[in-house]
Design a protein that fits this description.
The chain has about 375 residues and is an alpha/beta fold. The protein is globular and about 70 Å long. Helix content is about 30%, strand content about 25%. The protein has twelve helices and 21 strands.
Amino acid sequence: MKRTSPGFLHLTGTVLLSPSRSVSDVYVQDGLFTFTRPPGAPFRTLEGWVLPGLVDAHCHVGLDRRGLVPDELAEQQAIRDRDAGTLLIRDAGVVNDTRWVQQRTDLPRLVRAGRHVARTRRYFRDYAVEVEPGELAAAVAEQARRGDGWVKIVGDWIDRSIGDLAPAFPPEALKDAVDAAHAEGARVTAHCFAAETLDGMLDAGIDCIEHATGMLPRHIPRFVEQGVAIVPTLVNIDTFPAIADSAAGRYPDYAAHMRRLWGGRQDMVRRAHDAGIPVYAGTDAGSVIAHGRLPDEVAALAAAGLGATAALDAACWSARAWLGFPGIEEGASADAVICSRDPREDLGTLASLRSVVLRGHLIERLPAE
């Protein structure tokens, strides 16, 4: 890949300022959007359907199934996301310090969450800071200070003593931990598969739930009342049948549970969306999911009942606002993707973007050798 020099770019066609508002033109000068045409002629005009840079709200740049990866591989992960149009990433937990990514103007913007905080021996090996309940609040506060306004708790995992999913921490420990993070100015999200885990998280005042496969109708009013968002990671949930198959011999209850959660995934997302729970797109890339798959996640959300426009919004305008980043606005950093067709009608166009603009720089593919 190469990046052109910043300058006067003209983006034209249908410039989507929101799912329903558009203008015909926006310009990029000195790395920023402007709706006032600069003097002279543009060095490049890009035509199509123009969107703000896409958002992967659950991504792990610097992590794979082994845990920590070298910075060179983390760079490749970030580039793959960028080239797929993901220009803003909410990190959902990594082992290493990835602040160096934030210093690279050619890589996506990154909102870091520090390391996962998990119960001892109740998560992937070498991923998390592992603690017992009495240590949870202090560990969460420390990770909140190391991140960029988010911290991640592993709320449940298989408990091998009972052979099934179970909450990792008691409700009182979760409440203390969430309070500690909020005191540091951070929001808290949690990995949650099972229904039983959600009650304690809601009691604790959690801000977001990852996966949320166990959400039941009785949980929905509390999610709505408390403004708790979900990031379903449907491309990750599609791994549940294989997980169940591998566990069935030794842990049949866990395997059956995982299959039930997978079977109800689309109904869960549809009910949440219909009730007004904020739903955001996240791939869980960097654990067992490849980077660059945000278009697949958007398509999965649409198929689950959001429809194309709401699924697109979950990875675009509303997702950027949730994380505190502007879209296409006067004076905002020029982060945009250009599609060849209207993505509100054809989400497949996200998989073959016409152009990507990051911080005002046009990202172009080098000719194949």
